[in-house]
Amino acid sequence: MNGGAHPNRVPLRFHDACDRYGLTPRALRYYEALEILSPERDGRDRVFDARQQVRIELILKGRAYRLRLEEIRQIIELHDTHGAKIQAERWREILHRQRAHLAAERDHLTGLLDRIDAETEHAQPGS
């Protein structure tokens, strides 16, 4: 998941990383403050090497799946502490749990929409 070497990736400066990944500078700094990202420094500028770019991509994927940042941080750290296999197993567990959560949420929302439809169909004008 966090992958091995990515020799074709060119290091990105801070604003280039924002542009490439569609992130605001504030979001990128926030991920760094949470210690999800740890770019190298070149003077005052931050440089995101291939490893950091993969981390950004995992953050974005996790956020797209509506995972909490703490979960994403833990998944990313698993690669460093326990290796890619354990990281991938945990990723699958979290996605399975998230899928169940989203399915329950969908069912709840469908029920609400059905109730709204029923109420608006039977509502009398001016009542």
If you had to describe this structure to a student in words, what would you say it looks like?
A 3-stranded antiparallel beta sheet has the order 1-3-2. Helix content is 67%, strand content 7%. Helix 3 crosses helix 4 and helix 4 packs antiparallel against helix 5. The radius of gyration is 20 Å and the shape is elongated. Strand 2 and strand 3 form a beta hairpin. It has one domain: Orthogonal Bundle (Multidrug-efflux Transporter Regulator, Chain: A, Domain 2), CATH 1.10.1660. It has 5 helices and 3 strands. By secondary structure, it is mainly alpha-helical.
- Widest sheet: strand order? 1-3-2
Q: With helices defined by DSSP (H or I, 4 residues minimum), what is the helix count?
A: 5
How are helices and strands ordered from N to C?
EHHEEHHH
Give the biggest beta sheet: 3 strands, antiparallel
- Based on CA inertia axes, which overall geometry fits? elongated
**Assembly type of the shown chains?**
single chain
Low-confidence stretches: none
User: Structural class given helices, strands, pairing?
Assistant: mainly alpha
User: How many structural domains in the coordinates?
Assistant: 1
CATH class: Mainly Alpha
Tell me what the CATH architecture is. Answer: Orthogonal Bundle
How far the N terminus sits from the C terminus, by CA atoms, comes to 57 Å
Please state roughly what percent of the residues sit in beta strands, choosing from under 5%, 5-15%, 15-25%, 25-35%, 35-45% or over 45%: 5-15%
How many strand elements? 3
CATH T-level fold name? Multidrug-efflux Transporter Regulator, Chain: A, Domain 2
Q: Averaged pLDDT, please?
A: 92
Radius of gyration: 20 Å
| Percentage of residues in helical conformation | 55-70%
